[in-house]
Amino acid sequence: MSSTAVEPLTAALAAATAAANAAKDSAPTPTAAPEATPTAADAAPSDAAPRRVALVTGGSGGIGRAICVALAAQGCDVAIAYTRQSEKAAATAASCRTVAAAAGFYNTRFIGISGDVANRKDCELIFAATTEQLGAPDILVNNAGITRDNLVLRMSVEDFDAVLDVNLRAAFILSRLAARQMIRRRFGRIINIASVVGLTGNAGQANYAASKAGLIGLTRSLARELGSRQVTVNAVAPGFIQTRMTAELDDKRHEELLGSLSIKRVGHAEDVAAAVAFLAGAQASYITGQVLAVDGGMTMQ
Question: Active-site residue 82, yes or no?
Answer without folding.
Answer: no
